Amino acid sequence: xxxxxxxxxxxxxxxxxxxxxxxxxxxxxxxxxxxxxxxxxxxxxxxxxxxxxxxxxxxxxxxxxxxxxxxxxxxxxxxxxxxxxxxxxxxxxxxxxxxxxxxxxxxxxxxxxxxxxxxxxxxxxxxxxxxxxxxxxxxxxxxxxxxxxxxxxxxxxxxxxxxxxxxxxxxxxxxxxxxxxxxxxxxxxxxxxxxxxxxxxxxxxxxxxxxxxxxxxxxxxxxxxxxxxxxxxxxxxxxxxxxxxxxxxxxxxxxxxxxxxxxxxxxxxxxxxxxxxxxxxxxxxxxxxxxxxxxxxxxxxxxxxxxxxxxxxxxxxxxxxxxxxxxxxxxxxxxxxxxxxxxxxxxxxxxxxxxxxxxxxxxxxxxxxxxxxxxxxxxxxxxxxxxxxxxxxxxxxxxxxxxxxxxxxxxxxxxxxxxxxxxxxxxxxxxxxxxxxxxxxxxxxxxxxxxxxxxxxxxxxxxxxxxxxxxxxxxxxxxxxxxxxxxxxxxxxxxxxxxxxxxxxxxxxxxxxxxxxxx
Length: 519
Prior knowledge:
CATH architecture of the largest domain: 2-Layer Sandwich
Number of helices: 18
Number of strands: 19
CATH topology of the largest domain: Endonuclease, Chain A
CATH class of the largest domain: Alpha Beta
Mean pLDDT: 88
Radius of gyration: 23 Å
């Protein structure tokens, strides 16, 4: 199947082979649906023909509702499930037992015990220096280390990229200089100009004896790569795996996807941010107007945390853990300012608490002047919403920049359903006029910033494997501020007057808002 794309020159229309959904995925989806229908059919039939079974089903139905209410889960997540189970007797509680759990699959949990070999030696000297300089930031760092097993690093150079195009130039240069290993992990890899240029370098590095490993999310690449693309890469000498390969199972395998974006080169240089490996991210392919995204480059020991995250994700998806003879964590200190805390986030039992949400709440709670946020989506629980509101009502200048041209219309309506409440509290909402903003950037009081893969939505904050970098007084923070300021100038502020909508649309937003945590 061929699909046309308009590229950045505005004139040429290029075609390439493009499989919307490979057959393997279609089969897996059909199997999942059939499993659900089979379970429902069996239970309904038993309820109809066996009176005692029907009584048992009713008791289970009541137990299910009580279990949801009594659980420690976020109330915003419990409410839609209670509604769902109540309005769909018998069927509702079965779907609950199939899809409610957000814990990691058992086969992944078994592998976790073997990952101690991938840990780096912790050093709290940077943390002690941070506490002496700023005890408040030190307490935030302590909390972050406790819930994510990360640590504070200094002597790490930070370079901020305000576009995918600028990041690409730097990334290709660093890849060309790799001597020992290259690790790349992305939610989306799409065959195009960006990936082609990278792949040429990776295959060349394999010939030079460099170990190259690639992880991509199986569902994230469902519409961009063939179902067996990892085999194609292996033939090139690249050790590739797809994360949590979709096999067709009615157990919620569509959740807990890997949304991380990480590149590690020789354990000394690392990249992360919102940029996937696809042409729209570098301005080569036009989708939803201008595609605004950002990234950060780390050079120094802070890269160790990115290396660890990659090794765990790679290790969970291979049969045999690698036995490498090179040092994953070389001591690389650079002459630089500030403190860097890279961290990961994801489902239980790796992360018992929501790491990204905790970092975001700390940024808001400690702000005294301003908090500026860029995010493609705004679908948050009541707790986080109150944190943002309270910050604005304290007199802090809170501004959130979202896209004006959405990539998903229903998700855009979910985001807009929060506008009135936040504006009423004093939060200023902007929409990026030129197109779609995919950047996940959080900036506070000139000294603090967080950049990574974490959106302000349930999928990022609860379901997905994510990662981010918390920055304090680093050189990149000022560059982030300059870019966010320029982005605000190119955005339109949403007010109470401009956000007025009709009754039907308001009702639609109310309904989808109820079930947003389940999606």
